Amino acid sequence: MKTAIFTASFNRPDLMQELLGGLANNIDDLEGIDVHHYVDGGPKAKQSEIEAIIKESGVPYTSIVLREENYGVGRNLIGARRDLFDVHGYERVILIEDDLIPGPNFIKTTLSLADWAREYADIGMVQVWNLPQQPVSVDDLDVVVPTHEHFYTYCIDVEVWNEIKETLYEYERRYLEGVSYAKKDWRAIRKRFMKPRYSKLRTIRQGKTLLNANHSHPPPFGPRLKRTVPTGQDAITALALWEKGFVRLATLAPRAVMKGVDGVHSTAKVFEQLGLNAQADYEWNQPVPTSFRLP
């Protein structure tokens, strides 16, 4: 498959340095994969520093896209996926946000899980980072769990993107264009964009599915749309996947570590509240599974 990896960054060159160091440890698995970097712009951006780090890293890259203004997280990520899928014709895309540091076998495990998941009509995305609420051992390296949380990284194929992209594009057009990401109308997003989708019947996927017919599929943020639910593009991506009948799989054992303590939606307090200060081990050097199982 024609495959791309893209990173999304803004003004954290120290984290970008670590991300690229993690990719460098996976460099043998990058053969045949194009690497693109989407660096947001604006007054507080550090594009020149990040561009220099990318060029000096030794990790091959296909393009560095320097945004001409501060797109914000939502527009940057939606625009990157549009560019790679719709314009450049990639069949599979892996996202890595700038605060996720890949561990050993990150790329190989992602691709192995994505290949395995294509057998099932109800799998929309896969990822190999997780925040398990239990100890993880080598016996768990092939365990996967459905999740709607933590979109710091994922792998998606073009067939799924084509089913969900219009929801993302409508969200972008109505709520992100012409306004800063911090000032988006989150009340309207919940009331006028998300709530109607909550009331629709969820699509039932046809064909072979991983989860049986009795599996519960509540909306990503619970049966009722509370005022505290997120409204960013991650939330809309999760909602679009759910609407179309897809689930998202994560390996129980993480193959990366999330280090973004300070960011658009994160502070040290939020980082601790989410449990991110107590992440599980992520450096696994054992052979990569070629098949996976639910717990």
What labels describe this entry?
8 helices; 3-stranded mixed sheet; 295 residues; alpha/beta; 10 strands; Spore Coat Polysaccharide Biosynthesis Protein SpsA, Chain A; 5-stranded mixed sheet; 16% strand; 34% helix
Describe the protein's topology.
Layout: E1 3-9, H1 13-24, E2 33-39, H2 47-56, E3 63-66, H3 72-87, E4 92-97, E5 100-102, H4 106-117, E6 123-127, E7 144-146, E8 153-157, H5 158-176, H6 186-198, H7 233-243, E9 247-251, E10 256-258, H8 268-273
Parallel strand pairs: 1-2, 1-4, 2-3, 6-9
Antiparallel strand pairs: 4-8, 5-10, 7-9
What would you note in describing this structure?
With 295 residues, this protein is of the alpha/beta class. The protein has a single domain, classed as Alpha-Beta Complex (Spore Coat Polysaccharide Biosynthesis Protein SpsA, Chain A), CATH 3.90.550.10. The chain is built from 8 helices and 10 strands. The chain has helices at residues 13-24, 47-56, 72-87, 106-117, 158-176, 186-198, 233-243, 268-273, and strands at residues 3-9, 33-39, 63-66, 92-97, 100-102, 123-127, 144-146, 153-157, 247-251, 256-258. Strand 1, helix 1 (13-24) and strand 2 form a beta-alpha-beta unit. It is globular, with a radius of gyration of 18 Å.
